[in-house]
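Predict fold of Flippase-like domain-containing protein; 305 aa.
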Amino acid sequence: MLGVFLIWFSYSKFSPEQLAEIKNHFKNANYRFLLLSLVFGFLSHLSRAYRWNFMLEPMGYKPKLMNNTMAVFTAYLFNLAIPRSGEVSRALVINKYDNVPFDKAFGTIVAERVADVLILGLLVLLALSMQFDALKDFLLDLIPLQKLIVGILILGALGITGILFVYKTSFSISIKIRNLVSGLKDGLLSILKMKKVWPFILHTIFIWVMYIAMFYICIYALEETSSFSFSTVIAAFVVGSFAIAFTNGGFGSYPFFIAEILLLFGISATVGTAFGWIVWISQFVMILIFGGLSLLLLPVYNRNK
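Predicted 3D structure, encoded as tokens:
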């Protein structure tokens, strides 16, 4: 719903002439760079699938790389429909086809998200160091500090209440939840028991380098964005990452926030909107194709089980 509203809100501000200008940007874009962007995106997801086994191995599981890869693409496909549902579907896939317990698999996914958040945090600091004045007010307006603190406190209180309820009662549902929490804990702590720590770190860095490259190469698709500085790219990339994280795959929100941040760097709303949609659509097409193929091929690849 948020994405639909943002699409309506952003396009309601444009005149017919501006809408025609956005359409021309799409017609004149160099889509060869978008194909290269898809290659970088595919490599990042393949690396994520390979990295996953580094956390599963300490618990005695080593799923097939093909299943891991298809589980990752399936996860991104589900995230397009329901935010964060992909993490659940990914754990379910690997549970069904490689007998990895759901709770342990889900715990490893949460653990790797923690690692990804740390990298994103470093990129935020990098962006702020290069474009502090432009990003400070934008990020504070996007996520007001007071609301953020109140939200964290409320979530913390609810979490503590839930934990106390689970551990102080003997209802059958609470026993099931305790077992789930125990498995989640094993999955989370697997990141501390890895034997391949440095390969995990290197793959994590590679994944995010590919993410940035996937975004960076797209600036050459439009003549108006081809002269972006590296600091502008990093600032826009960070804002776009938040838009994807907080909505269902960034639908509607990604082009909106990309256009908003680029306005701060003197890029017109029409160019920023066209660029945002071009980047988002290229990623959407990749997820739609490979995620859809994964859903179809998973039972075929594992038909002997």
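Residues 134 and 264 are 6 Å apart (CA to CA).
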